[in-house]
Write a structure and sequence with these properties.
292 residues; two-stranded antiparallel sheet; 2 domains; 6-stranded antiparallel beta sheet; rod-shaped; alpha+beta
Length: 292
């Protein structure tokens, strides 16, 4: 991307005789590093087109007025401005590169905060990545607690119903909480003609609660463990939402970064330049730089 620098310098040349002013009516040669810039169009070594327009007005006074308008178009590779007696100043837009909106979105979609880090939004990156870590820790902690409650109600059934816990499926643990013993359960299934659900009346499937109170307590503990285990779906939903929100935010940050980078190249700069009188000439002027 090319950047246009417009430098307008209004100079008062003081201590100059009218004869010296007449000598200035010819072309003015300006130098910027190794480049010579004359009136008209000239192509420099780096194919940068420089346009210099000089206008001199001779006045019938000992202090004539001269105005010089210099239009310089430089490539982003050069990206520097020169003033008399100063060193080249790198442009901020030369040092920074535009950010890919697609990359920012994809990075944060895969790992919340990564797109923010890519677009140099460090604080936002910490927030989204921290939220991701907390959600994962919360889900792991919730599942561990649910597993602990499952172990507790199974142990309770072994102690108060004589259950053999090994190798039982989910339906078995539900059934023993609804019936006092295996016999009442099988009788109900036979009445309903659901013979495929009848358990063999042996030690492997046997249970018989020592009291209805303990059976009720077991069933409440089982339901509580299931409710806590079911919370996992909410954690997954929150994690997915965090990924999506981070991706959208990273996309916006990439656009904001690129917009700021573009606006940096459209700034104005004002400077006062002067040269003390020496051998009968000198100048005082105001330099205006406009970057597009």
């Amino acid at each position: 991307m090319n950047r246009l620098f417009i430098k307008i310098v209004f100079c008062y040349i003081f201590g100059m005789t009218p004869l010296l002013a007449q000598k200035m009516e010819g072309p003015v040669i300006l130098r910027a590093g190794n480049c010579r810039i004359q009136d008209g169009l000239q192509r420099t070594q780096d194919d940068t087109v420089n346009l210099a327009i000089k206008s001199t007005l001779n006045m019938r006074t000992a202090i004539p007025f001269a105005g010089t308008v210099l239009l310089m178009q430089e490539t982003e590779k050069n990206g520097t401005s020169f003033t008399k007696g100063s060193q080249p100043t790198p442009s901020l837009s030369q040092q920074a590169e535009p950010k890919s909106v697609g990359k920012a979105f994809l990075y944060s979609l895969l790992l919340p905060g990564a797109g923010q880090y890519y677009t140099e939004s460090r604080n936002s990156a910490v927030l989204f990545l921290g939220a991701e870590a907390l959600l994962w820790l919360g889900m792991v902690g919730n599942n561990l607690y649910a597993d602990h409650l499952v172990d507790e109600y199974k142990t309770y059934a072994v102690q108060h119903a004589g259950v053999s816990a090994a190798g039982k499926d989910k339906d078995y643990w539900i059934s023993i909480g609804k019936y006092d013993d295996i016999y009442s359960y099988n009788e109900q299934r036979r009445r309903e003609r659901r013979f495929d659900e009848v358990y063999s009346e042996n030690a492997y499937y046997y249970w018989s609660w020592d009291s209805k109170t303990n059976r009720y307590s077991y069933d409440r503990s089982r339901l509580q463990a299931n409710e806590i285990a079911d919370r996992e779906v909410y954690f997954w939903g929150a994690i997915a939402l965090n990924h999506l929100a981070s991706a959208i935010h990273a996309l916006a940050m990439a656009r904001k970064y690129n917009k700021a980078l573009q606006q940096e190249g459209m700034s104005w700069d004002f400077r006062l330049e002067s040269r003390p009188p020496h051998n009968g000439n000198g100048y005082l002027g105001v330099a205006i730089n406009a970057r597009f």
